[in-house]
């Protein structure tokens, strides 16, 4: 049985993640590894923590990745603070709100939900009213819903949670690195970011941050593994309500990422190299410039889509800048369009989940994929494919509209990661 | 705040993991990524499953990686089959037996343990007697204990478990790819391998396999996430005892790795590329040849260590071929020796945990690190450092003894991954 050398097609990846990885990140991953307790490696771990704080816009002591894909970060924070019977409020406005419910329920929380239609977000006052009614220990909410392309305003909710002594946990997997996520200013207690979206790092890590309000709960449930515990550690175990998961036990992860460097797992070396390089790219570009870049490309894409004669899906006032949802026109087979884009143009765009499956396409403009040539190529290709599938678009208008945006917004039109 | 380009020292990594990554694996990781449902990517996923079956020596349908470090594989299998109150027997002969206990207890198992001294393994009959006494649902045991360098014979235990209708779950993180692990022949129901040890792939994935006995339990607890469930899925949820972890829920992971391709997490693309290349290297070398290579380098290392005048630790009859434990001589500061090896020679060897901390050094001979030049370099360096630290070794003997092994075992003395 022979397995050939890895040989992959080149794709233009315009989904809401995973997106194209910056070549500098790919290169960083091919660096020979170091041992996990090598001082040269623990220095890198500390640098990653420092860079994460800057990207999360926080002064939190704890900011490090969980070694798993994005949802592992959700589970790590939630399972470390939820004890059976704890009340959790989850406002749901798309698929990933359901995921939060699912995780909380599995760990024994009494989950209260409010829902709004997919494609809308909550008026913060509605959420705050519900918080007052339910008095939960935790409110868990998604920031950017990739399933619907909507972004929930959080600041008012955060301030209210702090006043009411409710913990606010936010899934910012899709938004981090692509638009403002102000952990401290918005009074977010625990937050999960994603790597494979606006950070343009491969999937496989979930950077998280949490503050001392969450740390206090974690410390009260702290445990040191028997195989490595000292006598002192054993005597300190007062808790009869340990965190259920060993892998996601933040009290142990803290001891690994903190100065004690107590062995837990073996840190995923090459992924740390990737994350470090991805964060460096964000900081080199600068948060404000990076967010502005995402906005400009979003504008060009939106202008092109509209000019073509297609309609956007969802509340445009609360649009997630890095995800654009497009209604699939009547009579058009959405999957046939996606298939032709992939097979003829080597472009990937996404469908959606649940109630939106078959109704919308989703185009991501995230991180390194969020480049002018990609926007123009996806518009040109979508036009051609729609014509081929029998949908009469406004021929030639999409690219003109997109170019108008670019010409209006910048003089320098280059190719490259920071370029617009 | 400026973060410089990643710049790491080159190390000779002779710990029991993580070990040096094969350059072909590093290169595979720098391949541009694909979307997770791109047919080109799902083909790669299927290839990885097929290669894993060969390395695990199994015909099991299910063989895929968990996206997390090694212990995530332990947790995934155990949490997917343990329900509160289930009896689990864990025979402990080192640190990682304690880890199995810890995971099982957290998920509510009634854990029974037997222990033997660190540095020994169990007479299989002792374990079988205990199984008969306890009548557990599951026996969970480590195959190769990296903390003590011992390897537990499993076949008799496996056959007995099958006869007694007990599930056997094995942690083969340290042994897979370095010595025989015969999942089917040894009647192992669920098994966890590691990437960063004898496979020479970076840490961050945990390849697992399990058979239909385990699948049956998983299927009875099956759940489809609300955000993506169809009406049919919803009606099928009969279970009131779902798996607690969402991330490690094998019933959902099966639906992602199987033909349904139901979205769970976003597969860690670059790590899959790495694992694929690591497995290709194992299969190209051939299991028998690879295991023989590990044995020869072990022999050379052991001969050198003995010739130097040092003593080996632990039951040599049941030695893990890829980990050699050495007693730290009286009056010598083990950490000072390790520090000097790292700082002067850029070589990393390991200490150990718990009762063995400060008493032994552990030298790994795993995967790509398991090369002649590495063995010779570590012996030469250890000799020099010990002399410097005031321990009078038999000068010059170690390398002569190691070379004798190599000259006796092979004519061709090359440098390279498959070479001895």
UniProtKB/TrEMBL annotation, chains A, B:
Q: Which SUPFAM superfamilies does the annotation name? A: PLP-dependent transferases (SSF53383)
Residues annotated as domain Aminotransferase class V: 40-351
Superkingdom of origin organism: Bacteria
User: Gene3D superfamilies annotated for this entry?
Assistant: Aspartate Aminotransferase, domain 1 (3.90.1150.10), Type I PLP-dependent aspartate aminotransferase-like (Major domain) (3.40.640.10)
Per UniProt, the keywords (alphabetical) are: Aminotransferase, Pyridoxal phosphate, Transferase
- The positions annotated for binding substrate are 362
This chain belongs to the protein called Aminotransferase
